[in-house]
């Protein structure tokens, strides 16, 4: 048999019935569009530290967690710490404009490429105490709510748990025990006497204050009831003016064009199984779960979920790619590459999913896969390192065609 070109590894048939150009093994080589094989580049260790959660911003600045600290990597790949104490949990990222948002189960960060970091979202006031004081407020029952405002940009957070307080005689209300947080100040909202609508009566409060009269009510009502800072662990995606945050079976959405607060009463969708990834395209987002992949098109309030793959997906961060790089013909636009239990897929802008590998290569079912897309030596490569319950540990690398390598031993 004459072989004029190689089409990559194939394990969906026996070695005796391989498709033309198929390979049983392809170790440390890349295969280009013409079917030619070239040796793969080697690697050089530049830092022996512990790294995880790498991310490349739109301006090509690279961030990652080194020895538990969030760092910015310069062109020489030396790391400068910009936020300490992130820990060992994976950070998930999404960039909106010039700002990057990062989330794990214990961290919620917002930062810019120059390394300025702050907390993502404004916290709630956890506790405060009310007592009678001197003043001219009429005897009545009042509702009291506090919020924090971030001093750097004036963003107001969600309302604290309210307190009912009764003035049995004319007087004032003394508030104390308000936790002081660097970079934040408290606003105080009190209802009209025996009323239900709350108005701001003080701002810029630190620790204590006394409300002695209601004359300072200027018609600014409480607007952040039910608003919370972003929760969940990630992954993250952005579409139609919202950031989507994965939290187990739930997909949370921030308020429209207000990326630092979530209405936890209504801004979520529940999936039938645990969510493993979220990836945005122009028309909506792909949502991967352990039991299938779904496409949610359009704005959050009007969107419907359509199953686009019956195969479940491992935990991963899909990679954006020009569709013409991996699909022959007239396919245009930016798609997302992701892995399912049924193979490597490209998700198009309109919700169409194309499986690139199911006819030629079957992967072991993975629980997690680390993915990267790059263009190197004229090849468009989709690299994946997977973890799965069995042995051996699997690692695969894909290029313009179906190029792959299964690494049997870590030292290889």
Explain what this protein looks like in three dimensions:
The chain has a four-stranded antiparallel beta sheet with strand order 5-6-7-8, with no helix packed on it. The chain has a four-stranded antiparallel beta sheet with strand order 9-10-11-12, with no helix packed on it. The chain has one helix at residues 323-326, and strands at residues 8-9, 22-23, 29-31, 37-39, 51-56, 62-66, 69-73, 79-83, 92-96, 99-103, 108-112, 117-119, 129-137, 140-150, 163-167, 171-176, 184-191, 198-205, 209-211, 227-228, 236-239, 242-247, 250-253, 262-263, 268-270, 275-281, 284-289, 292-297, 304-309, 319-322, 334-340, 343-347, 353-355, 368-376, 379-387, 395-398. Mean pLDDT is 84; it is low at 391-412. By secondary structure, it is mainly β.
Q: Which labels suit this protein?
A:
single chain; 412 residues; mainly beta; Thrombin, subunit H; 3 domains; 1 helix; 45% strand; elongated; disordered C terminus
The dominant shape is elongated
What is the domain tally? 3
Low-confidence stretches: 391-412
Integer average pLDDT: 84
Described by its quaternary structure, the protein is: single chain
The main sheet comes to:
4 strands, antiparallel
